[in-house]
Design brief:
This protein is mostly helical. The protein contains 5 helices and no strands. Helix 1 crosses helix 3 and helix 3 packs antiparallel against helix 4.
């Protein structure tokens, strides 16, 4: 039955699937595989954008601290919160990237290298994106 749904319905279903279950849905048939791949790339991009936004917030927070507009305790608390948030977003993003790579959804050689490098950095406790917030 799932292999006979209209593409629009498949799009809506795939958009609601959790990250941890997303790639499993690609096993239904070719249409599902394509929709899961599209959704996975979309989530990958959204994570990257959010990580960038949080990183900008960290930098802005640092500028406020340097100008003595906020005290040290506030700076440390908020900075630690942002760092934990970036780490969590990075873990989620790398999870999707790894699953895409392992299931043949990444065809661009440069994207493959990026994913493999980021996964290697993460495994060894490094900073996959070079943001200096680990």
């Amino acid at each position: 039955m799932l292999d006979r749904l209209p593409v629009e319905i498949v799009e809506r279903i795939v958009a609601k699937i959790l990250d941890t279950d997303l790639i499993a849905a690609s096993k239904v048939d070719r249409v599902w595989w394509q929709e899961v791949r599209r959704e996975a790339y979309k989530r990958w991009k959204n994570y990257a954008t959010t990580i960038g936004d949080v990183y900008c917030e960290i930098r802005a927070l640092g500028k406020h601290y340097i100008k003595r507009e906020i005290d040290w305790i506030t700076f440390e608390d908020v900075n630690d919160l942002y760092k934990r948030w970036i780490n969590r977003l990075t873990e989620d993003q790398l999870y999707i990237m790894e699953k895409m790579l392992r299931n043949g959804m990444v065809v661009d050689p440069q994207e493959r290298e990026t994913i493999e490098y980021a996964l290697s950095e993460q495994r060894w406790g490094g900073d996959p994106w070079g943001l200096g917030v680990v």
